[in-house]
Amino acid sequence: MHNRSRASVSQSIPPAARITRDDADSIDIAPGSVGGVGRDADPAGFSSAGVERAFMPTLSQRHARLESHVIMHTHTDSNSSSLVIAERSFRSRLIVGTGKYSSFDVMRQSLEASGTQVVTVAVRRERLFNERGESLLDHLDLTKYTILPNTAGCFSADDAVRVARLGREILSQLSGGGAGGAAGADWVKLEVLADKKTLLPDPVGTIEATKTLTRDGFRVLAYTSDDPIAALRIKEAGAACVMPAGSPIGSGQGVLNPNNIVLCLELLKAGDPAFPVIVDAGVGSASDVAVAMELGADAVLLNTAVAHAKQPVLMAEAMKQATLAGRASYLAGRIPKKLYASASSPWEGTISYIPGE
Predict the structure, then answer these.
(1) pLDDT confidence of 116, banded at 50, 70, 90?
(2) N or C: which end of the chain has fewer CB within 10 A?
(3) Which member of 144, 189, 196, 337 is catalytic?
């Protein structure tokens, strides 16, 4: 692979999947004939589920070809071929949440389309069971996904520790296993929030809870702000993974401060390049995912951007492709930014007048 010319490599990569209105108009789907998903029905008369199903084979085929190129390129680089967290290896670098979907069926289809292998679950009774008594966990394939319980909604270290232990108790009773082993009973996505308005993390509470949970045998994946010093202190407290926010939870603002994310990566990986750093929160579109991955993040965690999209399943597919594209771009290495233009063709041999020559 590395002996081939750049031109031949670039020619072998398939074009990105593009969906236009013309594409949609060429698909024969009677309004509502395939079955919509409530609020996600297309205003132009399409069932969003129908459009998603019509596009999914093409998107999946193109994704498979792109994924094969990324895997081929990274296979020789032990630091990039897989996402490794707490001694577990994952092919996908996208982690997806299970909240806010219009139905369990939409959630299930979206998780499938995203290609994720790790899903987050908020450990509260009202999240695990709906008003009809249906369990969220009944709609998750525990042989396919590693469940990552999180302490969403906790505003103190004590509450976060209590919820984490409850999550471990629930998952330890589940039959089957998650991807690569038992469902993540000893894992926790730690969130210790400071207030309800910003949902920004409390750094002091996060460090305190990280120390307690680490002593208790947990592998802590800690949500934090994009403050690089706070991120480093959380790692020093024993976190197995640090997850700086791109922007406030559910805001859809993307990566607001890319320089701080780069600083987090630099400090957290200094002398420990395999330490996993995941951009968590604030993603609004596929381009946000690509930006985070191009900065060098090991993975991206998201929820609202898919669950509240007009077409969640289609957005989940877009997030999957953006993760691959962003990672490939990071590995390939972007050209440096310059103030002035740089001609693609040589000036030698031109027959026209060149100003200043």
Answers:
(1) very high
(2) C
(3) 189
